[in-house]
């Protein structure tokens, strides 16, 4: 189901159909800070992660790519021109490449072509400046952080706040990086977690859209693993398999052979009338948790009934969508706006 259909489908929400007064209370879903507080700071920066922690997020999510010298760093994709100022750096003009990644042609600058020292010369920028112009005010202030720095921040904030803060790393395109660049991000991640003294008993989830890396992680470790599934397409490393097949009862049972949770597109968790789909019940029956992605505040990401005004960048009513998702029985919700999610979990409604 595409985003356009999702918006029309959830138009019923405004009438209250999806929030029946007698809905079962499934508890309080985890608040997972999607790339940090990326609704308020440029994503995947230490500033975004720290703000998310200060706002009460249970977990922060660093997407992981890798440098040429084998250092895991936090970026949304291996192509970095959308989130850094690399395109304006004349000294790196000759690094521009065109590559095929998981069947898609991508032109730009790729993290695996830079050493960490070179990457340090770049500065982060807002990926969605038209929708988040306030974030763009922070362009140029922050470096690309390493996973080690993210872990160090988490530990510092745990000492400051006295509460546990989880990390929820995603391995981005691990199959492509292993085959094309000869870099094994599974091995790198396990090594860095071990060196940091982070074990399976700590609050950690490791996620991927691919299957083979999760199976390797399951064989090599006891960390909690999350199979990501989208509303369309299928895993890059299993071209004959569709995500739609993976979210059936039989599909969930196969996922449960190697994973502990499913990270599902919101589109998969809600039926046309806004009631829970079969995904959550199938996952729970297989012993899997469900974490839904992604809750955002801007009108552009909300169904028509939850928007306010005509400006795509204006704040809508994500609190109501939080309530809908919580009542499906999901165990966690990824959000760009942890403060809003935490308040919604505590019962807050849309302001004004």
From TrEMBL:
Its EC number is 3.1.4.46. CDD domains: GDPD_ScGlpQ1_like. Residues 1-23 form the signal peptide. It catalyses: a sn-glycero-3-phosphodiester + H2O = an alcohol + sn-glycerol 3-phosphate + H(+). PROSITE patterns: GP_PDE (PS51704). Pfam families: GDPD. Residues 29-345 form the GP-PDE domain. It comes from the Bacteria. Keywords: Glycerol metabolism, Hydrolase, Signal. Coiled coil: none annotated. It is an enzyme of class 3 (hydrolase). PANTHER family: GLYCEROPHOSPHODIESTER PHOSPHODIESTERASE GDPD5-RELATED (PTHR43620:SF7), GLYCEROPHOSPHORYL DIESTER PHOSPHODIESTERASE (PTHR43620). Belongs to the glycerophosphoryl diester phosphodiesterase family. This is glycerophosphodiester phosphodiesterase. It comes from Pelagerythrobacter marensis. The lineage of its organism: Bacteria, Pseudomonadati, Pseudomonadota, Alphaproteobacteria, Sphingomonadales.
């Amino acid at each position: 189901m595409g985003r356009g259909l999702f918006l029309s489908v959830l138009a019923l929400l405004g009438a209250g159909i999806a929030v029946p007064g007698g809905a079962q209370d499934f508890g309080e879903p985890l608040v997972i800070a999607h790339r940090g507080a990326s609704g308020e700071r440029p994503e995947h920066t230490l500033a975004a992660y720290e703000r998310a922690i200060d706002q009460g997020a249970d977990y922060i999510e660093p997407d992981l790519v890798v440098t040429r010298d084998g250092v895991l760093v936090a970026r949304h994709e291996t192509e970095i021109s959308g989130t850094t100022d690399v395109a304006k750096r004349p000294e790196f003009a000759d690094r521009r490449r065109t590559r095929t990644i998981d069947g898609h042609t991508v032109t730009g600058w790729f993290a695996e072509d830079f050493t960490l020292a070179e990457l340090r010369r770049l500065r982060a920028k807002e990926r969605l400046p038209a929708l988040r112009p306030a974030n763009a005010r922070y362009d140029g202030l922050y470096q690309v952080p390493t996973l080690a720095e993210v872990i160090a921040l988490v530990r510092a904030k745990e000492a400051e706040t006295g509460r546990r803060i989880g990390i929820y790393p995603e391995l981005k395109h691990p199959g492509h990086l292993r085959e094309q660049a000869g870099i094994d991000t599974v091995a790198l991640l396990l090594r860095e977690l071990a060196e940091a003294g982070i074990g399976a008993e700590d609050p950690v989830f490791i996620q991927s859209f691919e299957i083979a890396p999760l199976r390797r992680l399951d064989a090599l470790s006891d960390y909690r693993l999350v199979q990501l599934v989208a509303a369309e397409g299928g895993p890059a490393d299993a071209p004959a398999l569709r995500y739609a097949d993976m979210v059936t009862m039989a599909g969930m049972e196969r996922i449960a052979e190697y994973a502990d949770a499913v990270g599902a597109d919101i589109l998969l968790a809600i039926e046309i009338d806004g009631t829970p789909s079969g995904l959550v019940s199938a996952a729970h029956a297989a012993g899997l948790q469900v974490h839904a992605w992604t809750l955002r505040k801007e009108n552009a990401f909300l169904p028509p009934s939850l928007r306010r005004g005509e400006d795509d960048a204006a704040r809508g009513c994500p609190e109501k969508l939080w309530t809908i998702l919580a009542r499906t029985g999901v165990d966690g919700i990824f959000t760009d706006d942890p403060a809003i999610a935490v308040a919604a979990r505590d019962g807050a409604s849309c302001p004004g």
